[in-house]
Amino acid sequence: MDEKILTQLSIELGKKLKQQKRWVTFAESCTGGWLAKVISDIAGSSAYFDRGFVTYSNKAKHQMLGVSETVLQQYGAVSEQVVKEMAIGALKAAQADLAVSVSGIAGPDGGSEKKPVGTVWFGFAHRTENGIEVVTRHCCFNGDRNEVRLQAAIYSLKTLLLVIIKN
Length: 167
What we know:
Mean pLDDT: 95
Strand order of the largest sheet: 2-1-3-4-5
CATH class: Alpha Beta
Keywords: Hydrolase
CATH architecture: Alpha-Beta Complex
Number of helices: 6
CATH superfamily: CinA-like
Order of helices and strands: HEHEHHHEEEH
InterPro entries: CinA-like_C, CinA_C
Largest sheet: 5 strands, mixed
Shape: globular
Helix content: 40-55%
Radius of gyration: 15 Å
Number of strands: 5
Strand content: 15-25%
CATH topology: Maf protein
GO molecular function: nicotinamide-nucleotide amidase activity
Protein name: Nicotinamide-nucleotide amidohydrolase PncC
Domain CinA C-terminal: 8-161
Low-confidence stretches: none
Structural class: alpha/beta
């Protein structure tokens, strides 16, 4: 059922992007490319999506998206600061109009008291007349690894649609 929601959201997002002649990119960690997959599943998606970044390791986040090594060490990969830099890096690298970044702890291991399994941070970057604006969000999802990742993907697309409708 939830995967059907992803398809519906991808179709809706594609229509909006096409209407607005805007391009989207994704910088994914815990979702492992799921967002790029569901967007590219839609026929004609090459009109608004041409690349994404799967940056699972800190090294990849730094090398591909320009995330500061200092920020990664100080705050950890699952943080507001990192998803903000991931979104900006992806937006610039892809020369897109919109970018979504996702970094979280899908489990079953890796959680802590401060960052339990299910913790996911999101960055939503878009170009404005004054430069780049980034909105960050934080969620703590329940479920197993697959359920956390699926919820993160759904949340990403729903929130991106709200940003696009707003702007």
